[in-house]
TrEMBL record:
It is an enzyme of class 2 (transferase). Its EC number is 2.7.13.3. It is a multi-pass membrane protein. This is histidine kinase. PANTHER family: SENSOR PROTEIN CREC. It catalyses: ATP + protein L-histidine = ADP + protein N-phospho-L-histidine. Gene3D superfamilies: 1.10.287.130, Histidine kinase-like ATPase, C-terminal domain. InterPro entries: 2C_sensor_his_kinase (IPR050980), HAMP_dom (IPR003660), HATPase_C_sf (IPR036890), HATPase_dom (IPR003594), His_kinase_dom (IPR005467), HisK_dim/P_dom (IPR003661), HisK_dim/P_sf (IPR036097). It comes from Streptomyces xinghaiensis. Residues 176-228 form the HAMP domain.
Amino acid sequence: MGVADAMTLRGWHARLSLGISLLTALAFALPLAFFARQQAAERAQQTSERRAATLVTVLGATQRRSELAAAWRSSGDDALSTCVRLGGGVVGRCPAPAAYAERAAERRRALWVRPPGREEVLLLPVSLPDGGTAVVESAVREEERSEGVLAAWLLLAGAVAALTLISVTGADRMARRLNRSATELARAAAAVGEGDFRGRVAVEGPVEVRRVGRAFNAMADRIDELMRAERELLADLSHRLRTPLTALRLEADLLAVPADSRLRAGLTALDREVTSLISTTRSGPARERLPGRSSSDLPAVVGGRMEFWSALAEAQGRECRVWLGRGPLPVDLPADDLTAALDALLGNVFRHTPPGTGCGVQAGLLSGAPRLVVEDAGPGIESPALAAARGASEGGSSGLGLDIAGKAAEAAGGRLVVDRSPWGGARVTMVFAPVPDDGAVDASGNGHRWTGRSGHRNASGRPPRNAAGGGTAET
């Protein structure tokens, strides 16, 4: 995940505020810093002019070199930066070459010059009573040009930092309210995604955020209302099955044929499923199942359920082969869900193939993973990808049989595979998540051991007999 992806709304808002504040502050601070440096340079030139003016005053009172030298020496530190060129002689230390002074004398006006590698110098020509011209030189010291600049820059930097801090702090306080609203909205949305429709968000913050909060609360209310209505409808429909089911059980009690025991067993199982459906729909969404907390033994569950289907296959003249691997072989799926998936797959076979069409069931460790395989010798499935989609059917049914098995396989960390069986019909494989080696034998390798059911105890691969006639594909 990149930095941009991990940044929170509050962090993004703080960085944006920091950038805008810095740009705004620097837009004012940089010109002020340049102005402070210019002011320091102008003050240094004015100081140089005052030093030169002092010597001009002395020069107007006397032209004697001894007196001029005494006045120059008494100027203190100014003597290090000034001098007077008079009648071919020099009083003091001249900061500029003589050629510059001669040029100023010829033009008879003050000049600012900067000799190569030296400081800036003021050349001030002075007319003498005898008709001659003297030149007063005064240099601008570099320390005077930067005097007070650093302090001004530090003051500006502190002002920029203080203004930026105030701006970012204020923006962060506003962003905190916006971030709190967004966080609460994300929390409530996550709760809705997990099936909890009771969460609502507080409608506060900017207009746009309040609008989103109201829309989310309305959506959650509507979803909760629809879910309750759907659960009540399913529970009512399930409960309405009780009446004909009770009538069927009463009719079964009146039967005196050997088949009545199987009929009673089927009605009892149907009654149990209806009761479970009513309880599930009225209790709302189930909690997420924890792995390993509701596992079942694949061969044992399949073997127990095949007692019922084998009897039904015998009644319809079907040759149903059952292979069970050596157990125990746990899969991360409750026994009821595993039984429902097996019933859905075998129900497809019995509904959509003619009586007498053979079928086979394998349950065990195959190719390193627990698998449940249901195959038949019917016409097969023309579009396996379409058949695996929920509600899709090529045979006029509801199209939910394979979806039930697929959901069960995914809940156990596996997948559903639909293809063609070696007998030419359909083959549906539920592949479960691999389990640690706990002694189960892989039937795809050496040493496999299968237990045959319905009178068959070999794995020769000979297809079961298939009654003549057509049939529809399973869905």
